[in-house]
What we know:
This protein is an all-alpha fold. It has one domain (7-273). Helix content is 65%, strand content 0%. It is built from 15 helices and no strands. It has helices at 5-24, 26-35, 43-51, 59-66, 71-78, 81-84, 87-106, 113-127, 135-141, 149-174, 179-188, 194-197, 204-216, 228-244, 254-273. Helix 1 (5-24) packs across helix 10 (149-174), helix 8 packs across helix 15 and helix 11 packs across helix 13 (204-216). The protein starts with a helix and ends in a 19-residue tail after the last helix. The model has no long low-confidence stretch (mean pLDDT 93).
Amino acid sequence: MTHRLATVRQMWQLLEPIHATLYYAPEAFEEAAALGYATDERWPSYFAYRAAPLGSAGPQLVNALFYSLAPQMVERHTAPAWRTATPEQVLKARSTAVNRALQKLLGDRIGSPELREAAKLVRRATEGADTAGRPMAAANAALPWPDEPHMVLWQAATILREHRGDGHIAALQAHGIGPTESLVSHAAAGAAPTEVFRSRQWTDEEWTAARERLTARGLVETDGRITSEGLRVRTKVEKLTDELAAAPWNALKPDETARLSELLLPPILDIVGAGLLPAQSTLGIGMKYDYQ
Length: 292
């Protein structure tokens, strides 16, 4: 069973807010603070929560797998992470935080037949994901499945999100786009203002050097605007990313995927409507690429 790439991309767009709840919900910061992490900004808990499935991973490994975050930023937050709490403690706090947050956000939808149906469908898709060569997806897939439908939904969204992310790194590397270049080219393509990408904390000198490298390849203008060749390459990256993310959805028939989209929309609107998530991010979820 093969789905259109537009469907694959749509499923990512629907599931991403569910996964991202972990990084923005007040409950996530409360659980992180209880472990001893600083919560005056989101990064200490972000690195701990996202890296915990890897075990006591050091900065070099985390930097390789997270890809687009500045190495000095990774070092600052990852090096002390496991002195504050063990990965096992962080994983427990992560589950508690997500459970609390989703119960509050989804209210009466928790335990509903519709949420149970959505969880069952998305778990089927997730269990069809091949994690070979996808370390972040594999680390999360190795965790035991929870029992509650809303937690199954979150875990499935997380595995699929990391599965896609691992593939996206492969797609970037296949087209010679390094970590800093990935952000500069995405900003140039209009995914979000440059200021949003500054959250990855590359220095001005590093950002300028990446832009110069892309300019030398004819992908970006000297003023930061993307060229026609740059848009062509970026489109190829996004197409390959979607192609590499497609396999899990082959576990579902087209009518099942359509039904899942229908079932996911109300809880997604609950999450987005709560105002937790930023209006703009570095992911470029709203970007449209003409490769259908």
